[in-house]
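Appendix B. Worked example

We walk through a single record from start to finish. Start with the input: the chain for DUF559 domain-containing protein, Georgenia daeguensis, length 66.
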Amino acid sequence: MLFRKERLIVEVDGRRAHQDFEADRARLNALTVAGYTVLRFTWRQLVHEPGSVLEQIRAMLRRAGS
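Next comes the structure step. The output line below is what the pipeline stores for this chain.
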């Protein structure tokens, strides 16, 4: 998910998404250098801890809005 105005990116993935570990890190670094905050969650966290995931996203959106 992209929250453009707040410059926040939320990613959800699992182990299969990490076939190219170095490319993943390079992309994360490029987004960070561009001024984005990236929150990353696993599919397990999304399914089993949705409240925690939402609270972290909300906290970052509040921080970005201040």
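Two observations about the output. DSSP finds three helices and three strands in the chain. The beta strands are 2-3, 8-13, 37-42.
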